Batch of 3 targets.
Target 1
Amino acid sequence: MEKKGYASHFQGRSLLAMKDFTADEINYLVDFGEHLKYLKHHHIPHHYMEGQNIALLFEKTSTRTRSSFVVAAHDLGASAEFMSPADMQLGNKESIEDTAIVLGNFFDGIEYRGFAQSDVENLAKHAGVPVWNGLSDMWHPTQMIADFMTIKEKFGHLKGINLTYVGDGRNNMANSLLVAGSIVGINVRLLSPKELFPGKEITDMADKACAESGAHYTITDDINEGVKDSNVIYGDVWVSMGESNWEERVNLLKPYQINMDMMKATGTPDDELIFMDCLPAFHDTNTKYGKDVYEKYGLKCMEVTDEVFRSKYAWQFVEAENRMHSIKAIMAATNGNLFIPEV
Ligand code: CP
Ligand code: NVA
């Protein structure tokens, strides 16, 4: 008799948004990512995708996600081909549907970073192979597995952790942390000016997830309420890729900069508090945008001060490394040649 296992849940599946996955499935990916990290660090081969070819389509720039897919594919025994808008017909001369059919016949899996969530969904509908969402305007699902790995490495568990996301409460990171965090039992707080509170579509999903997991979420513009007893203070850029409204965002979000006063306002003991950030982060003036914002608005750092970024609380580079291990887990679980027992 065929053994029922998670292979049937994962294999051949796309990963488009964490809302499509159960708490058990998300926890499985987190733990599998940790296992793959151990194998990598101990030089133990793990060629679960031997001989496969995967396509990496990026409509927006990327350092971590692109590198993660390339290194993870190589470690899994697969080859990766990167295509930017300058390299492909997609968008100019060819539709998503036609591109999906063509690439689906060449490749065993496709990563896509784009704008509208409907684009990656459309790609998945027509590709006939797993599609992994490498970020859309609405969600950043692969980032969630890395973030949960990082939290689990520090605290040993996810359930009951208080995580405060500080910044634009309507972007892909706020949406993802609120919904995915609620699924796995993290108490998520969105700390944001009222103008940037999330919409009902997202809070409805969080309500449903919290009802199942027992987590509680808070959406507030009050700094003390948002950070009190928090274990994770989480930052993201004030202006996301595809946006250009710097002046509006600087004015709205200036009071919400993550600084040492905010870390102290948590009241959390030092060894139970960390800073995380999906990166990139504007914590100094060593970038083009960082310099522009300093010249125009007099701010030397935006979402996080250099002091917090370099402090004992800083876990953002562990988190960045975990992008690679977690993306490897996602690809191997959905497309790898492995049996995943029921958990
Ligand atoms: N966090 C993240 O997605 O980084 P990249 O934009 O560099 O891929
Ligand atoms: N909200 C950011 C996330 C970057 C990883 C953006 O979309 O630019």
Note: The longest strand covers residues 53-58.
Target 2
Amino acid sequence: MTDFSSYLSTFSQDFNQKLPNLFPLPKGEENRVIKAMYYSLSNGGKRLRPFLVTETAKLFNISSEESFMTGAALECLHTYSLIHDDLPAMDNDDLRRGKPTCHKQFDEATAILAGDGLLTYAFELICNEANPFSSSIKNKLCSLLANAAGAFNGMVAGQMLDILTEHNTDTKQPQKTINRIEEMKTGRLLRYACEAGAVLGQATEEQLQTLNFYSRKIGTAFQIVDDILDVEGKQELMGKTLGKDAAQGKLTFVSLYGLAEAKTIASQLISEAISALEVFGGSAQRLKELAYFILNRNN
Ligand code: GRG
């Protein structure tokens, strides 16, 4: 294990240990939905989004304890998107994070509700009084998160475009389309992670722009690597069904550029992301390492 992998793994363990406190189980059989929410949330996952929140906030001397709630909220929202993406009406997947998907483990209606529950709980966590920031910062965090996850150029819009493209791959401008899908579906939440850290740390406009640039570059690289892994990855490491993009004739970075060029583009994006962080000096070391990790990941 590299030094960075072990750093990320320690972060994940610490993060996972704090999760049960956020999910006290109320009495009543309706707690089934909370069990389903916690099942999917605690079911592995690399925790890259809360890691990004934490490390970005650290640039501004905000401790990991202070940024925890914001990272947890984002991971809840991310997990909702995975649960809904796996549903029969969407990607129809049986496996997620190496375990049965939420609708396979529970049932479809419960999985829809678990997604809804995690989405709304994200905002409750940000507003929670245990989140030690001012109302104005929490307000900003909520508004940015709603926009990143929503239907107006956010993740929901990206998912819609992705679904439409699946049924119509002979789009006139495939390059533009694939970039728009990535930017909204995958990119917006990764961008939010860095924005949130910057909001917690009350970053300057210039610092925010730098982090924005970094997160856009790693976001695109993340999606390109995801597309590459769908072709070349190992199912036991990825924990999800692979080869689906080609089987569904999906427009992806690999179908558009081919494997070799897709790898070159991803590598170029990661170099640009890392260079941008120079302004933060040594304190951005872990963010630089994360960029490499995204490029070289196998799950
Ligand atoms: C249902 C509104 C709605 C949106 C779904 C997240 C998503 C949008 C679709 C999932 C399909 C997919 C392959 C998305 C692109 C990349 C992505 C988000 C991968 C999963 O993220 P990781 O690798 O997952 O960080 P873990 O499990 O490690 O958290």
Note: The chain has a mean pLDDT of 95.
Target 3
Amino acid sequence: MSRKVIIAGNWKMNKTAAEGRALVEALKPLVADVCPGVADIVVCPPFTTIAAVVEAARGSNIKVGAQNIHWAESGAFTGEISASMLTELGIEYVIIGHSERRQYFGETDATVNARIKAAVKAGLKPIVCVGELLEDRENGNTEKVIGTQLEGGLAGLTGEDMANVVIAYEPVWAIGTGKTATPEVAELTHNFIRCTLKDMFGAEVGEGVRIQYGGSMKAENAAELVAQPNIDGGLIGGAALKAESFSALIHNAIAR
Ligand code: 13P
């Protein structure tokens, strides 16, 4: 079964609305040749930049996502954003459970699970982040940690729900550090994630879920990562903040 490549830029807390619009305007001509059937290109700006980016991306092959979502439909949740607020803007994807949210904002597998359920109910496509700390890897706990994140985060979802879910494997020690997991090391963990998905949802569903790699992915290493059998794309931080570097990465990734 062939899975379509998905390359998503996580802009994190970068780019004002004006800067985000300019980035998308610069990116559009650079990626216009990428067939929508070959790869999904996604950008995930901060909330306040989403509307400008949706407008700039209209009619192009660039899709837009958010970086978080709350599980309630509305109510007394100061500082949070609901599914309907996001769908009204016309976005398609939402990153959930990024390690920075787990590390700095108290995100747990239970809150990740609640956010994923709200997203799929609203027709959004969650990009669910999992990944181990350096000490987990050094202690031989990578699979235990990721297995727990998957089982807790995806609890109660159906195979049908999973058709819209993307998993992003982001080893925390590789994020923003310049230290990429080698393609072989990343592939071993991607394979473990796929086996876990097959155990949880059955072979056919598990085979269809796209699994992105994230962590210091750039134009130079994208091709060899995405060439691995279970690496279906990337979730990109730093290299997604400039049109040229993001476009070069996308082109190298799909040249596999
Ligand atoms: P970098 O590409 O900057 O390492 O960030 C990866 C990431 O956290 C994407 O979500």
Note: The two ends are 16 Å apart (CA to CA).
